[in-house]
Amino acid sequence: MSDVPAVVEAYRKGHKGVPLEELVSAYFDSLEKLQASKKDAAARLRYAMMCLSFLEPLIRYSKKEGGKVPPVIPAIPEATIFHAINGARGQLQNILDLVKFFPEVHDYIPTVEEGFVILELASKIRKLLQEKPGAIQNKLKRTLEFDDGRLISRVVHYMEISGQLKRKKSGNTYELYLQPAGEAPSQDTTESSEGDHPCRETQYGPERRGKKRRWWQRGP
Predict the structure, then answer these.
(1) Residue 220 has what pLDDT?
(2) How many domains does the chain have?
(3) Which candidate, 195, 163, 168, 167, places its Cα nearest to that of 181?
(4) Do the beta carbons of residue 118 and residue 86 sit within 8 Å?
(5) Which of 56, 133, 170, 203 holds its CA 20 to 30 A away from the CA of 65?
(6) How is residue 217 annotated by DSSP?
(7) 3-state secondary structure at position 159
(8) Does residue 142 share a domain with residue 108?
(9) Residues 125/140, Cβ–Cβ less than 8 Å
């Protein structure tokens, strides 16, 4: 089928012959590992991508059992932002193709489209820190001529936990530096002044730990 995105065809090929229930179980196992990964950026991206590979079986099983597709799919925003800050434009396009193909997750289209904005923003931050190490975080809006300070803070947070940059306390804000190759990322996520604090961990609603596999067994 020519209208099926390549990413969907690849997932279908990889799942061929595997029982639907087994694929759904694998989704929830991957989700649990994603939620447990916390500050391990590489693991979070890995398990998010594993979850996305099981998105179609999850949708199919939900409909088969008369239940509802989860209102929250954590893997979509997780994979989006990590691929964005890594500059992986092709991977972002794969995720966009995926969410556009399945109507059940169309609400995530703006989230993934924002990933392309994040990709460009992260690139500008890296370039700035190459030219001006120690740039002040709460001045990035003006320096980058970018109006969304909350998005800047979110991007800085994810770049920090992924080991791309480090922050040094400076008054009520931070100086930003590119992380030297091979150096462990900083674990300091202390909140600072408004606009500088890192984003908080997402609460995953019906898919959060302790309720794995239960919500879709309840029916409508």
Answers:
(1) 34
(2) 2
(3) 163
(4) no
(5) 203
(6) G
(7) helix
(8) no
(9) yes
Q: What is the mean pLDDT of each run of 10 residues along the chain (220 residues)?
A: 86 96 96 93 96 96 84 95 97 97 96 97 96 95 93 96 94 92 46 34 33 37
Per the listing, tokens 């639907």 go with: 20
Using only the alpha carbons of the chain, give its radius of gyration: 19
Q: What is the per-residue pLDDT for 70?
A: 83
- Check residue 66 and give its pLDDT: 77
Give every CB contact of residue 92 below 8 A, 6+ residues apart in sequence.
80, 83, 84, 112, 115, 116, 119
Domain assignment of residue 146, given as a range: 132-198
Q: How many CB atoms lie within 10 A of CB 65?
A: 14
Angle of helix 75-85 relative to helix 89-101, nearest 10 degrees, comes to 160
